[in-house]
Each structure stands twice: as structure tokens, then as C-alpha cells.
Amino acid sequence: MLRNHTIDNHIAHPVSPLHPLSNTGAILPHRIIRNVGIDWLQVSFKGRLAFSKKYVVKQMDIETKIFKMVSGIYYNDELIATATHSPKSPILDPALLIIKIENKQLYVSDPVRLMQDFQKEFKFTFVNITRIDLFRDFNELKYGLTANNLISRFVKGEYLRKGKGEFRLIGNSCRGIDYSYLRFGGNTSDFQVYMYNKSKEMREVKQKPWIIERAGVVGVDTSRDFWRLEVSCKNCKKEVVSLQSGEVKVPDLTYFADDKNVQSYYYALISKYFGICHNTGKSKLSREKPVEIFSEDEEIVKVYNPTNCVSSNRTNKMVLRHLENYCEYMRGESIMGDLDRRVFVEDYIHLHGLEDYYVNKVSLGYRLL
User: Fold this and answer.
1) Cα–Cα distance for residue pair 120/123, rounded to 1 Å
2) Which of 72, 157, 227, 342 has the CA that lies 20 to 30 A from 297?
3) Which residues pair with 126 in a beta bridge?
4) Please, is 279 exposed, middle or buried when counting C-beta atoms within 10 Å of its C-beta (0-12, 13-18, 19+)?
5) Phi and psi dihedrals of 217, rounded to 5?
6) Distance between CA atoms of 239 and 303, rounded to whole angstroms?
7) First to last CA, the chain
8) What are the CA-CA distances from residue 24 to residues 12, 74, 255, 348 (Å)?
9) What are the strands, taking DSSP E only, across the chain?
């Protein structure tokens, strides 16, 4: 079972030397390792990759479907982040750029502080977090429940998930069924939750020593297979409401710079989007007893849709795709007509808070332009 290790029983753990966040530029002081970590951090800024005394910026000979340029950000000859900039679409601000922290730095560094350092060093203006993935590794869940057993009971109908939505399973059949992956949420969902065998994934794809080392630090037995429960957030504009004080916040870099906020945000999302409960035949799922996942997953915040814009849904996204296709179809009829249509589409994107959807879905292969 998981060793007794709560979010307050943090461990001071040294990270790599010669790090940009150290005061001396040489050795970074010990950082705090908690149960919940960050496996993806991608942030939108406005600005330009100007000269820096600390970092070296090298343009790569590639581009994306939405950005003309891709540059690597290096420190001591090591790639620590990638920036995509110079948007192709006139809908997007020419000063927009998106920075993604390299995977290793998410584990050996403090990725939020590193992103804040980029903002300070290059004098960027923060726009929003376009994606953040939070995770927790484990061998077993609370009361010795294994991930494979949980998935099996869900498939058999002994467990149910609160709320509707699609799910996907991966497993092997050899003298029985052995599950290795469960995902809630579709490809266009703002939030997706994955429970999967992390050890198996690394054996089949790529071994990452920094992931194994971190898992061991927080009490996971890495001599045997361990699992990961991960939530991918592609819409961090939802408001976070404290159940204790009633304070409302929209998560930004300052919010996630506090490790305790990372923990509480993760558990709130797991409760909202993973929500497994027993199936005893009650008329309402809300009356069913929830399946306890971790020993310290008490909710202290709730996640809500923002109040400062019209909420977006599948219909809004579908309309946006049709509008984009129409603009492409009508392009060249007249300069003023093209401009008017682009302004209308841009207003529609901002009204429904679809900026992240526009960027993410184009980069994932959807043809919006």
C-alpha cells in the first residue's frame, strides 16, 4: 500500500545543479516534493523573445500549423523549454507566443517558478495557462484497492461514474483481462482524467529516470509497477472557490506557485471529473457512496465556470469551426468582406472564451484555417 505520506509530510529534495532559478546561478536550494506533481505546463504570453543574459534562444527549423516559428530556450546548453511564436492567423495577436516546459524540468525543477522567471527575464505579459497536467503516482489506492481492480469493477457495473461522458479502456487478454488504462473525457473536452500503468508505459515508450526518482521520493515502491492518476486541464479559466473562505480565484501562475493550491486544485478536479461511486441500485447517483481514492483527497475548493463570459459548449465549438470554414471558402471575394468576417470570428472566439480551443485544436490537426 501507499506509505503514510500526506500533502503536509513533504520532503526536501535536491534538484539539478547549475539551475537558472538558483540565487547564485550555480546550485538550486532544496525544493519541496509533494504527492501531486505537474507533468505538463504550457502558458500563453504576449511579447517577444528578446536578448537575455541568462538564457540562450535558438530558432528551430520547424513550424506548427498555427505558428510560423519555434524556438528552443536553453540554459547551460540544455534545452529547458520550447516557444512557438509568430501566429499565422490574423485572428491571433501577432505578439502571442506559447511556452512549454520540457518534461525533465517538470520533475527536477520548479516549473511554475521557471515560467515566472521567463516572464520576468523577457518582460512578457501573462495571458493564460493553455494547459496544465497534474498527477499523482501510487501502487495501491486507499484500503488497498488496486487500479486494475477499480477498472474491472467499473466495467462490470459494480462502480459507476457520476455524470455522463465517454470513456476509453486499454488492456490485454491472456488467461484473463489485465487493464492498463482508463480515460474519462473526449478529445475535445477541456478536462480529461487518465488512470494508467505508468511503469508499463515507460517500459514500452521511454524510461525516464527523473519520473522514477520522484515517485520513490513521495513513497511509491518503484521496484514494482506503479500507476498514475492524471488530469489534463486545457481550460484554466474556470473559477476556483474556496469552501472554507468563499474566496474566488481564476488559476494563474501565482496561484500554482503555491504547492498547496496545486494539491487542492488536483483533488477538486479528480472529485469533479473522476467521481467513482458504488452501485447499490439507488435511484440517484448522488446518494451512492463514493469510492475513496486517496487518504487525503478532501475537497477544500470547488471549480466553476467563469462568470465574466458566456459559457462555451460543444455547439459553440461547432459553430466556430463552421465560421472558420466559411471564412476560408469566401476568402478573396473582397478585402473588406474578409476583414469583416475575421472581426466577427474574433469577437465570437473572445465572447465564448474559445481562445485555447482555437489554438489547441488547430495544433492537434483540426483544420480551422
Assistant:
1) 5
2) 157
3) 45
4) middle
5) -65, -35
6) 6
7) 50
8) 19, 18, 26, 48
9) 11-13, 31-33, 36-46, 56-60, 67-75, 78-87, 96-101, 125-138, 159-161, 167-173, 177-184, 191-197, 227-233, 239-242, 248-249, 276-278, 301-304
Residues 225-261 pLDDT 10s: 999 999 999 877 777 777 666 777 788 999 999 998 9
Helix (H) or strand (E) holding 105: helix 103-108
Q: Closest Cα to residue 84, out of 368, 362, 366, 346?
A: 362
**pTM to 2 decimals?**
0.78
Residue 332 DSSP SS3 = coil
Residue reference for cell 492518476 = 229
Give 362: exposed, middle or buried? Use CB within 10 Å, 0-12, 13-18, 19+.
buried
Q: How far is CA 190 from the centre of its chain?
A: 10
CB 162 within 8 A of CB 282: no
Closest CA to 270 of 300, 241, 225: 300
